[in-house]
Structures are given as C-alpha cells and as structure tokens.
Amino acid sequence: MNQLTRRKFLAGASMGAAAAAAGPWVLKARAQGGPIKIGVVLPYTGVYAVLGESITQAMELAFARENWTVAGRKIEMIKEDDEMKPPVGIRKTEKLIDSDKVDILTGPVHSGILMGMRDKVHNSKTILIVSNAGADAISRERCSKWIFRTSFSNWQPNQPMGGWVAKNVSKEAFLVAPNYQAGKDMMEAFKETYLPAGGKVVAEDYPKLGETDYAPYLTKIRQSGVKAVYCFFSGTDAVNFVKQFDQFGLKQGVKLCGAGFLTEPDVLPAQGKSALGVITGHFYTPLLENPTNQKFVKDFREKNVGKMPDGFACQGYDTAEVIIRALKAVNGNTQDKDKLVAAIAKVEFDSPRGRFRFDPKTHNVIQPFIYVREVREVYGGLNNVPIDKIADVRDPGTGCTLPA
Ligand code: PHB
Question: Percent of the chain at pLDDT above 70?
C-alpha cells in the first residue's frame, strides 16, 4: 500500500468508526438532511393545462413564503406533465415513486388519471395529496390510508345544487358533461337532490372530453324546450361551451347552471360577456372577504402579473399549506410515514376558502361552504358573486374504512 492510498484508507476507516460510534440514528438524521422531494403530476398541456398552471403557481407561492425550506430541509418540486392521458399519468407516477423516490406526491387534475394511479400509490405506501381530481370513489370504496384530498370530491359542489336549482331556477333541466368519470359523478350528484325536490331531467348528453363543436348538443337543448341546463365543463371545454351556448342564442331563454369550474377566473376572461348570469356551485370565489383570502388574492396577483386566483389556485395553496404544516409537526422526518400520515390528518388552518380540515372518515376536505354564485359585472370586471351558501359539505364517504 503506497502512502497516498494508505492515508485514504485510514481516513476512510476512521470515518467509518466515527459513524459506527455515532449510531444508526445519527446516520438516519443525516440522510434526512437532504431535500424533501415533492412529486407533482399535473396537466401542463391539453384541455386542463390552465388548471395545472394555477395549482402550481399557488403551491410555489406558499413554498416561497417559507423560503423553500421547512423544518431545516429544502423543498424540491419535481414536476411532470401528465398530458391529460391516463397511461402517461400512470407512467409519470411510477417514475416519481420508483426512480425519484419522492417523499410526497401531489396532483392530478383528471379523475381517470387519479383512478389509474391509485393502486401504485396505495401499494407503494406513497403519500398522495390530491390537489384536484374529484373521483368520488377515492373518498369511498377506493379510499386509502395514504391518500388525502385538499380539493373536493365530485359530489361536493354538485349535490347541494340539485335542490337549489329545483327550488330557484326550474323543475325541468337538460344535463350535459364530458363523457368520463368526473362528468358522470357530477351529474349523478346533482340528480341526488334535484329529483327528490320535484325536478325532472328531460335529457342527458355526454360529449367527449375536449369536444370543440357543441352545435349538435345545443340543437338538442333548443329542441327540448327546457328552461335550464345543468352542466360540468372545465378548462378550454368551459370556454367553448359557454361561448357557443351564447352564440347559439340560448342565453335569452335558458338559464345556464353548473359546477363552479364552468366559470372560474381561469376561463372567465376568455368567455367574456357570454358568461354573464351563469349560476354555479363552488367552495371558493376570490371575492370571499376573510383576511386569509384577501392576502392570498393580493400575493397571488402580485406574483402572477395580475392574474386572479381561481379555486384551483386555492387547492394548490392548501396542498402546500398541508405539506408545510405536517412537515413542521414531525420535525421534517419523512421516514416515519405512519407519523406523517397522522400529522397530515390533524392539520387545520385558515384557508382562503375558510377553515380547512380533513374528514377523518374519508381523508377528503370538508368544505366550509358551497357557494351558489352568479357571474356579474362588478368591481370592474366579471366575477362570481355569492348569492347563497350551504354550510359544512362533506362527502358521504360510506364504505370507506381507510384500510392500511
Ligand atoms: C376531474 O377530472 O376530476 C376534474 C377535472 C376538472 C375539474 C374538476 C374535476 O375542473
């Protein structure tokens, strides 16, 4: 052994001895000093790209407030575009879990992608905080101890609207939504209270997600003679549907109602005056007067060249807030996953939407309120003005036993 290699060998040996003397807990703590990796699966292209953008911008706002460091550990976001395609979303999820070894996963927007990710997440015991996709089954028969949801179940913004529309708009409605799980979940939830309140569904139609020409559907709506339409559309679908509904001349005689995503601030500027008078149900509007929301709206607009935050931004902000608070509660220890899950379940704070807390039965957020909102021209622009509200809306979540 020459001098150099001998010196290296001795140095290595003494380091090893020091580590052994320090004990495995010190080594574990050192390993814990690395960045906390947060895997993000969201659409950055396609019909829902604007949703992915809002969620990301608001998460970044919250982490920036903490200087991207929580409990002494750096926060690193690894962003993946799911392209709105379930096989891509599943592949990106596998990459984040198996190769990047993320500590926490968040996303997606699309209910079908969430359903496709579910088993990989559950079987690998990866903590997933769902920041949009509302698939009801995730709060029910497909729930998991490892999955939380800060956004909504598809049931939540729609179920209270059925009774409201029957009472205040019309006892006859035409339902229309994109042909996939979220569209089906939302229309079912609406019917749950619309039918018992004496409402009659004249017809239901399910165009494909990403449809650009709604003329055949609008023709059927006109021919049906209904006075109300209840729908779910989001992203570019919401822009196209609301504009074409107006261009078709239906706005004069038919009240357009739906799930709040239809007229969120991500799409309102593109819809313009075609959105005036549309009535929707949602847990958020940037007009909420609580101090947390007022600060959130101001900070978000400052950071994003005047862009108005939407419900998706609120979801992103709350997702980051849940992560920050839970990590602080466990002192940055992401190894003990049971402890981290318990800490997440306990998180409670003032969100821009009101008091945030998870339902222990389902791990789904309890909505402090579902607001019935009407698009009006106020405060110098188009806004979702609350005209009524329903308190404490929690997914029924029966059949969810949160198995380990
Ligand atoms: C969903 O697929 O769950 C979904 C997508 C867009 C929304 C709401 C729900 O605005």
Answer: 91
